[in-house]
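Example record

The entry below shows one chain as it appears in the dataset: sequence first, then structure tokens.
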Amino acid sequence: MVDNQDHDIYSALVNIQDHDHHSALCYAVISENEEIVKLLTKYGADTNIKSQDNFNISLDLFFIFDSPEFRSTLLSIAVSRSNFNIARLLIENGADANISNDDGTTPLLYAAKQGQYDIAKLLVDNGAEVNIKQNNGNAPLYNIELYPNGGFDDDFEIVRAELVEFLINSGAEIDFKDSKTQEFFIFFAQENNMIMVRKILEAAENYDDLKFILNAKSDCRKLALHHAVERGNEEIVELMLKYGAPVNFRACRGKTALHYASESAYVKIVKTLI
């Protein structure tokens, strides 16, 4: 058993930094050695220390950032490596989920950028602010890329959509000037997600906000309304019409929502549209 005086001595020893401004814990996190991270934190290693040199990660460019002036937190390093266990260990031993790197990037911004639902939930459950913005103005919600692989990985898209849903349900503010909001809205219409379609519509504060999402076009000039009709979701169609969706807007080949409903023999939706 280690008494308080001995613990202070050990803490001073484990937090010594080398000439590159790295502590032993920093190297353990970088090498993703969970056992050493456990050992060092047990003896008082500072989990909020920032590393300073070429081990840092640039969120915007996602490559090794060779600059001695740029410093990142150990938690950000763990998250950027998608290491849930080490991220959890750091948090359990005092790592602040809201301390940012020198470019304003918080661990949650990294998790969002990489589509890491489990790590994002871990961070939010431990106090991460969902609306803190990076220096470039991006909030975590708007760091999410729904289609990072060009739409060729459905499972990946679903996880990222779940992350969008989680952040919005956790209080993330919806930006009706960001095209990603349009992308999210159309995606949820395609996926028959009535709850999220309603949540985005209800977040609109004025006509311009509603117009921004209801008039947003996907491939083939389709609106969210067209996708909802194609999916046969009468409830979502009725909701969009209630909020002013342009019922006569023509998608590719001049098709309106009524054309899509008739083509698929959705009698109830045809009646709703007429």
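Notes for this example: The longest helix spans residues 154-169. The two ends are 78 Å apart (CA to CA).
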